[in-house]
Design goal:
Number of strands of chain A: 11
Number of strands of chain B: 12
Mean pLDDT of chain A: 92
Number of helices of chain B: 0
Number of helices of chain A: 0
Radius of gyration of chain B: 13 Å
Helix content of chain B: under 10%
Strand content of chain B: over 45%
Radius of gyration of chain A: 14 Å
Helix content of chain A: under 10%
Largest interface: A-B, 26 and 20 residues
Largest sheet of chain A: 7 strands, mixed
Structural class of chain A: mainly beta
Largest sheet of chain B: 6 strands, mixed
Oligomer: heterodimer
Shape of chain A: globular
Low-confidence stretches of chain A: none
Order of helices and strands of chain A: EEEEEEEEEEE
Chain lengths: 115, 111
């Protein structure tokens, strides 16, 4: 089975801190994604990456950056955390292609609270 | 552009009731369509999918049929259980690797 792991399930940080959220997948997927999930808004794409060192902005990239130095790892960085970044953060990965390989697999999520 | 619209919740049903959660999409061509489920405190899990028109995805008693003519992918289950209480997301993937998700429908099943 595909496994996507995230470094923390719960995280509490203070305003202005630099925050790193780590995601690792073990299925050699080319594509990795970061979403945030908020009540009534569903999932919103922050950034995605289709290859090592490649990144693309999603719908809400402001206040975030990402790093993908290795194929299996995709990091989300909050340069200076703010209270409006309190949310559930979900990482996902997928193969490139169609048919049976086009499913996204999700990690368990990190619930971040910024005080 | 690509988008997914699903019925708003929350939905509350009694055990053994019939479930329908509506989902319609906007996309050119033939996207792949998905239903994901999120149990409390967890990430999303793939529930079922369909990759071409008239395909039926099914899993754990849930079904959805890809209807190109109505651009729909409604989720159904004949008899829900308390353990089906979760948030359900409809999603599509078109050309490229990006997914488009609906806003989610919360289902609560009461004994």
């Amino acid at each position: 089975d595909v496994k996507v792991t995230q470094s923390s399930r719960y995280l509490v940080k203070r305003t202005g801190e630099k925050v790193f959220l780590e995601c690792v997948q073990d299925m050699d997927h080319e594509n990795m994604f970061w979403y945030r999930q908020d009540p009534g808004l569903g999932l919103r794409l922050i950034y995605f990456s289709y290859d090592v060192k490649m990144k693309e902005k999603g719908d809400i990239p402001e206040g975030y950056s990402v790093s993908r130095e290795k194929k299996e790892r995709f990091s989300l960085i909050l340069e200076s955390a703010s209270t409006n970044q309190t949310s559930m953060y979900l990482c996902a990965s997928s193969h490139t292609g169609t048919g049976d390989t086009d499913t996204q697999y999700f990690g368990p999520g990190t619930r971040l609270t910024v005080l | 552009g690509n988008s997914v619209t699903q019925m708003e919740g929350p939905v509350t049903l009694s055990e053994e009731a019939f479930l329908t959660i509506n989902c319609t999409y906007t996309a050119t061509g033939y996207p792949s369509l998905f239903w994901y489920v999120q149990y409390p405190g967890e990430g999303l899990q793939l529930l079922l999918k369909a990759t071409k028109a008239d395909d039926k995805g099914s899993n754990k008693g849930f079904e959805a049929t890809y209807r190109k003519e109505t651009t729909s992918f409604h989720l159904e289950k004949g008899s829900v259980q308390v353990s089906d209480s979760a948030v359900y997301f409809c999603a599509l993937r078109h050309t490229g690797n990006q997914f488009y998700f609906g806003t989610g429908t919360s289902l609560t099943v009461i004994p």
